[in-house]
Structures are given as C-alpha cells and as structure tokens.
Amino acid sequence: MVVDVTNSPSLDDDAVVVFFEASASNIAKADVGAGVRHKVALSIVGVDRLSEGGYFRAKIAQEKIIEDAPVPFTIVRATQFFEFIAGIAQRATEGNAVHLPPVFFQPIAAHEVVGFLARTSVGPPVNGVVEIASPTTHRLDQLVREYVGTRGDLRQVVTDINAPYSGARLDEGTLLSDGKVTLGLIVFDDWLNLSSVAP
Fold first, then answer.
1. I want to staple 134 with a disulfide (CB 3.0 to 4.6 A). Which of 32, 49, 108, 111 is the partner?
2. Domain map of the chain by residue range?
C-alpha cells in the first residue's frame, strides 16, 4: 500500500495547485508501475465546499486524480488538526487582531489522524472517502480566542462573519462532516494540557 501525505512547500494559490496536480499525477503513475493495491491519501473534511481557496482547490484536484487512476484507493478526509490552530490565527491576523468567523469546526489531534491512516491502510480500499473528526464541536473564533489566551498572546480575536478561511468564505457547517464520520477520543482541553507540558 501507499499512504500519501504530501504537502506543498508554498501556500500561494497558483503554486499549490501546480504542486498537487503534478505530485498526484506522478505518484499515481508510480503506483501503477509498482502494482500498488491500496492507495490511501490524506485530505480535508469539507474540501469540496471550499473551492474559493487555492489550497482547497489543489486538494480537490489531488482527490480527482486519485479517483481517476486505476489503483484501488481510500481518501481519508480529516478535520483541521489542533496543531494547526496557531497557524490559523497567524493567517487571520491583521495588525494586532485575529479576524475569524464564528463557524463550527471539529479540530482533532494529529496523532489520532496518523493512527487512523495506518489502520485504514491495512484494511480494504473503499474506493471513496472516509472521514475522521474530534468528538466535540467548537466555534472557530472562540476556540482560537481560548488558545491565544492560554499562550499569553496579546492579540484580540475578533468575531467577523465575513472573514475568509484560507481564502474561502464559510457557512456555519462548511467545516463539519456531512456524512458518516469516525470520531477521535481527545478533546481540546486535554490536548491543550498535554501540549502545554510537552518539551
């Protein structure tokens, strides 16, 4: 089997699309040549509803290439990682304020996604999408506000219903699974406590 967790070195809209189209095509050809019997790729919950953002368009293109290839596959869509919260805040910062919409999302611990990818890879291909998310739902702006506060960060988190998320406009449920989803075990407060004492 092959587990594809490639990521672009650039988040520029055009560059990231070029990267994922090229890498997905090249890996698909290599999969065929190697006789791969199960291709597993990491993607994003709600990606098909986020096409305004260049990164999300790139992931949609990657998924399409995998789906069209002759290799049996499973696409694992995960919600955003807890570990990405600092980056979400940084990308949404203007001056000393972080502008985020009050939409729902279910961030998950990265190592739970890794475990799910591993278990999926040794199972049968579904030739479709499976999803994994945190067991709890939060408002994006409020969770980032809490995270920033615990880090002694003086930036103000501003609730802004029009604020884009990596270039995409969001509805309340855009970042949530709309199908059958596997739920992780770790909630935000537990992850926050663990990350605060990590070396």
1. 108
2. 2-197
Given the candidates 3.40.50.261, 3.40.50.970, 3.40.50.720, 3.40.50.12280, the CATH classification of the domain at 2-197 is 3.40.50.720
What secondary structure letter does DSSP report for 109? -
Would you give per-residue pLDDT tens digits along the chain (199 residues)?
Answer: 999 999 998 888 899 999 999 999 999 999 999 999 999 999 999 999 998 999 999 999 999 999 999 999 999 999 999 999 999 999 999 999 999 999 999 999 999 999 999 999 999 999 999 999 999 999 999 999 999 999 889 999 999 999 999 889 999 999 998 878 999 999 999 999 887 644 3
Where do runs of H (alpha helix) occur along the chain?
13-34, 54-68, 85-91, 110-121, 140-150, 188-197
Count the Cβ atoms, other than its own, within 10 Å of residue 180.
Answer: 8
Full-model pTM: 0.92
